[in-house]
């Protein structure tokens, strides 16, 4: 895989056998120049791009912190739920985390007690995992 462009330190555009892909992983885009090989051991997630790829635009907007936190959560949750996140689920989670971080950074009042009962009772297993 050849490095093409960094979106941030944890997201990069690469070329792999003539196909453009977005790869995610801690430090994946740090210090690389166009054409250099990507350290494949750092890749935690890979998305194949298309001409109308909304994922490309979405990933460009995420901070490195959002991607790192999403990767940590996915690594924790997948074995506990005995499930594998699809690309769509991964991006939805990253988008949710990014929005939450933005709200916190913008000091918007957040009252988790308003949704606590509903989440706890409708998704008890997931709620227990979220406490970790």
From TrEMBL:
SMART domains: CAT_RBD. It comes from the Bacteria. Keywords: Repeat. InterPro entries: BglG_antiterminators, CAT_RNA-bd_dom, CAT_RNA-bd_dom_sf, PRD, PRD_sf. PROSITE patterns: PRD_2 (PS51372). Residues 61-132 form the PRD domain. This is PRD domain-containing protein. It comes from Lactobacillus amylovorus subsp. animalium. The lineage of its organism: Bacteria, Bacillati, Bacillota, Bacilli, Lactobacillales.
């Amino acid at each position: 895989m050849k490095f093409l462009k960094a979106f941030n330190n944890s997201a990069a555009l690469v070329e792999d056998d003539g196909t453009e892909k977005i790869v995610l992983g801690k430090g994946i885009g740090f210090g690389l120049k166009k054409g250099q090989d990507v350290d494949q051991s750092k890749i935690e997630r890979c998305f194949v791009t298309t001409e109308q790829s909304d994922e490309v635009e979405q990933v460009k907007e995420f901070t490195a912190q959002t991607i790192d936190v999403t990767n940590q959560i996915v690594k924790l949750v997948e074995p506990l739920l005995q499930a594998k996140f699809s690309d769509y689920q991964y991006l939805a989670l990253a988008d949710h985390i990014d929005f939450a971080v933005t709200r916190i950074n913008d000091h918007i009042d957040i009252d988790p007690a308003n949704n606590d009962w509903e989440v706890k009772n409708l998704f008890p297993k997931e709620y227990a995992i979220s406490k970790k």
